[in-house]
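Q&A log
Question type: sequence-to-structure
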Amino acid sequence: MFILKGAWNVPSATVASTSEFVVMWGQRSKSDTMLFLKNLPRFVFFTGKGGVGKTSIACATSVKLARAGKKVLLVSTDPASNVGQVFGQDIGNTITAINSVPNLDALEIDPQQAAQAYRNKIIGPARGVLAPDVVANMEEQLSGACTTEIAAFDEFTELLVDSELTSAYDHIVFDTAPTGHTIRLLQLPGAWSGFLESGKGDASCLGPLAGLDKQRSQYGSAVASLSDPTRTRLVLVSRPQRSSLKEVERTFNELAAIGFLNQYLVINGSLPHEAGAHDDLAIAILDREKAALNTMPDVLRSLPRDVVEMKPYNIVGINALYDLLEKNVTLPKSMDPVPPPSITAPELSTLVDEIARDGKGLIMLMGKGGVGKTTIAAAVAVELAHRGHTVHLTTSDPAAHLQETLGGAMENLDVSRIDPREETERYKQHIMRSKGYRLDDAGKALLEEDLRSPCTEEIAVFHAFSRVIREANRQFVVMDTAPTGHTLLLLDTTGAYHRDVSRQMGQSGMHFTTPMMQLQDQLHTKVLIVTLAETTPVLEAASLQEDLRRAGIEPWAWVINNSIAAAKPSSPFLTLRAHNELPEIKKVSQSLAHRYAVVPLLKVEPVGLAQLLAIASPGVTSGE
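Response status: OK
Response body:
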């Protein structure tokens, strides 16, 4: 049930266009050009923790450059790209002109489409030439996650080398996937270049009949482009929050270690100081932001830095994107306050009540980066453990900080992390023990060489994921997943494994259960989609739900996190943002979710066992 009290008697300005908002709030004089835009090289990458606003900043940059007369290509490397949603048109895996912005084209690198095109390119010439069983074997070799990664990566590197495809563009702007996925993408040119230079690339990994000389040359050129500060700039985007800044520090160090030194910092979504007048919630947010910036890691202080303030409206539409970097809005002191909305919606504790009745199972938290999956996963796990259940809390997100979120140990609760490097080393050792012990020295050397392939990591992470799924047969396992795109790739690997096992076992008549079958069984797995009450996060969550349904996985519930409306602010600025949430909450409750809960934006940062218990325990008080 979702009840709005007086929600639709909101002043018209709360649903006005961006231009009307600017008139309503007044304008500051235009600020100087953002530092990261000065002397901008041809290639610019935006990266950072999920949900920090990379897409908005990348799109705004592209619009600004295009309006200045530059020919721009905006590229999304995020498997869960929403660039098309931002511009209100379909883009996809081909370069597409943005209708509303002359001089701007866009491209969304879709891993699945890229993989299919790659398979067609490799297998097509063999059809009708080679024996059917040979072609079938080639198709099998090209069905896994390795092919998906290679195919998407080939498209990415092609944009970094001189070619007819990109020669017309003054700037190529990359809106990247959340940090962990992006670091891997930027590491791959060197990884694959080195792998090929060894001369021992495994054809089953790169694809039969693939021209290795082309890959070697293209990957080497990509390395040169990425490491040249006159050609490439990396912009680290962060929220003014401790966790976000720590993630940016990790990103800076990892990218600097592989030669990417031309880095800039953008602090996005900073609450305007005027918003804090006479509002305890706003004052608490401002204090948290100030403390986070005052304790910013030293390596970040040395970077050129820009601040983009939060707006009282959603960043939707071309004018809003242009204004994001061109001007800030402020509150006129004479503004009459807008009454806060009043909503009644289920709390997170109602979902935990249902989960607890099963006594065991896998609880997977999924969604766009930055929506608070780690916090909600920790809150659910802590509450289940508090009720006496044995709980294993784990994460597949390279950027997650579960231990910091928990702030301590708790009875009945074990915590772990699927670390790609550790899992890769464990997988290599397992293969060498199980397959290498019978080989002679030459055979072992070849096997070790094959295991150095960058694809090995994807396989290793899948094996770790499968172990977690099996563990939920006897206890609760709460899993904080990586942001949407990375998780969908993991599920793709799970689906490929399921199809392979089904093909091999189906004719034998033997009973079998695959990880995908367990994910599809709601008695074993409950998927909770976490989102924010904002246009883009809800659209992305709805898209994720459709992707899951196509895989036969039905989401069990939605969680709307950090709701300003549920926190009942008094600040005119926050009140306007609260009213803008209401249509999105209504959409989730009435159209998208079987069941749902709303978690308010809290005055106290949700870190530590006590705060986490308050989120998921019955009777939590909004805004405390």
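Response note: The chain has 25 helices and 17 strands.
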